[in-house]
């Protein structure tokens, strides 16, 4: 699973060479693809970029790392330390403003600039941001493989939108008060055979402390998934897409299986039994395999522990019952 961050070690940009010490260089076609990935997914490690690059262009991690180094040295990407409890240091990459200028058309800059400036700044919690990036990536790639079943109409990420308004925001009512809900990731599908639309809301919950906030979030989603809250959901999709969907479902993703189970037990007395609220954990989004040297041998730490390479699930697996299993034994559904 994604390793938790060590908050005792600060996050910062790594220092790049002074521009005057570098020879002139401009992004090539292949490096522009990396910039496009970062524009779409915002935060990625070199391993996640290699996963995308290999699927789309049949090339792997060595070329991606080489291109990333060039992009960073010349100021087209930002990279931040991501301290981990074990293994080698991992870096998180995002677009710099200069890199964004390479792949965003001038007429689209006003729409995209807020996202670009925000992703170029250091964050306190990259684990949450990377988890949302993986969700978006698996959804986008997996929907291609499930095109016979449904059309992925839209995929919105937290606080999607521009200066004129936030797109990924829904108004719920909790204890008689109106509250705005901004899911980490919202997707809308159109079923090919049954001819209707359905929204899916994803929430990555890594906190183990502020359960009062979590309870309010459960109540807010219970409202949005109820008959009364359907009008609030319809209002957003009608305004943005001219579509009125059917009732949706929400997936809460805990830090680990025990945390996901605590979230589920916390939600049970707060929501009706027919509310489609499912629970899983971050480790279900990732598969691990041993890191290997060039000669094929397994890499280990001095104490003998095997170092693991983390990679996301295959997109096809994400769209099966394997990923959405409620911890009370009931099976979840992602593809209707």
Total count of strands:
13
In total, the number of domains comes to 2
How much of the sequence lies in strands comes to: 15-25%
Overall SS class? alpha+beta
The number of helical runs is 10
- Estimate percent helicity: 25-40%
Order of helices and strands: HHHEEHHHEEEEEEEHHEHEEEH
Please state how the strands of the largest beta sheet are arranged side by side.
3-8-9-10-11
Shape: globular
Largest sheet: 5 strands, mixed
> Which value, in Å, is the CA radius of gyration?
21 Å
- Quaternary structure: single chain
What separation lies between the terminal Cα atoms? 27 Å
Mean pLDDT, all residues: 80
Structure description:
By secondary structure, the chain is α+β, with helices and mostly antiparallel strands. It has two domains: 19-124, Arc Repressor Mutant, subunit A (Orthogonal Bundle), CATH 1.10.10.10; 129-318, no CATH class. It contains ten helices and 13 strands. Strands 3-8-9-10-11 form a five-stranded mixed beta sheet, sandwiched between helices. The longest helix is centred in the middle third of the chain and has 20 residues, at 126-145. Mean pLDDT is 80; it is low at 1-12, 325-329 and 331-336.
Key attributes of the depicted protein:
336 residues, alpha+beta, Arc Repressor Mutant, subunit A, 2 domains, 5-stranded mixed beta sheet, two-stranded antiparallel sheet, 10 helices, 13 strands, 35% helix, 21% strand, disordered N terminus
